[in-house]
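Consider this:
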Amino acid sequence: MIAWPKDALPKTAFTDPAVLFPAGDNKARIVLRATDQFEPILSSAVTKPGEDAGITTLLAKGMRAFAIRVDVASGVSGFLRPSDHVDIYWTGNGGGATGDVTRLIEPGVNVIAVDQTSSNSQTTATIIARTITVEATPQQVATLAQAQATGKLSMSLVGNNDSSVASAVEVDSNRLLGIQAKAIAPAAAVEAPKVCTIRQRNGDKVTEVPIPCTN
């Protein structure tokens, strides 16, 4: 144990060995990230007593983990680290005459793992990830699953000090190339054919008989 000034210790630092190492075979803590020599052990660096160190420990209540396939062309896959935040864009067929469309579908999503690494301190070298795992609500999971199945997903890395929320963004082929969509002229009204008749009386009955129109 190393003596630390009491006023300099973070609030979440362990100061009692009995609390850090509770008695019992099933109450061991697991280290979640690398620590430096003489560094105070924080509650965020270890699991709770007896808790598994899987990725579920990184999820907030009500959130889910969703894996996204990435490659070098996905945007910033070679620079992503756990705890980064990304804006996720979808590119696919928009269903109109404008060609493919790129749309921001989920802004500021938290990355909790890159490939099999869920600790930021374990990732020191730049690698090209194959998958990233993000934290999302069930509704976001459904959106991302549909987007991944119907188009291509790209990521844009959000700065650490950027607290802004990206607004709705959408760009199609015409807007990218500066092409103005041609206005569709309204269809000309179809004039109903003119019908000419004469009235014929047969006793007490009057009937209209069609005849050729002269004008």
